[in-house]
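Researcher: Structure prediction, please.
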Amino acid sequence: MQIRHASEADFQRMTEIYTYARDFMAAHGNPNQWGPTHWPPESLLFEDIQRGKSYVCTEEERVIGTFFFDFGEDIEPTYRVIEKGSWRNNDPFGVVHRLAGDGSQKGIGAFCLNFAYEQCGHLRVDTHTDNIIMQNLLTKLGFEKRGIIHVEEDAYPRYAYEK
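Model: Predicted structure follows.
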């Protein structure tokens, strides 16, 4: 597998992957994370691509996964308030959002998260409380559950993880 910046030419494939991910999550006990809001919106995906924050995971030139990655100081406003816990420190950190694979092979999520961590050495991720699959993956990769955060997109709390 390889990781590269996404381009507008990848947009259609990215939307196919997100459609697959929404269906997969709904079928595995997590229908509310992206389903009701049809998350992520196309406008956000284009913005991510234009800002150079959107990435794709490829296998033999075929896009099989996608995610958002950024790194810096205070880059995620929803992480400023964390309930029932705390972040380890206020050092610059990376963040991954909108991680999705097409289901064609195992390990896409781990490969993408490991790539992001290798870029920055301090990574934060959040996931829906019903997303048991992602929670298990994060724990397997050495992330610690740090508390609960809230996002603007919906009223569902998210577990916050850090490595």
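Model: Residues 11-27 form the longest helix (17 residues).
Researcher: Thanks, that helps.
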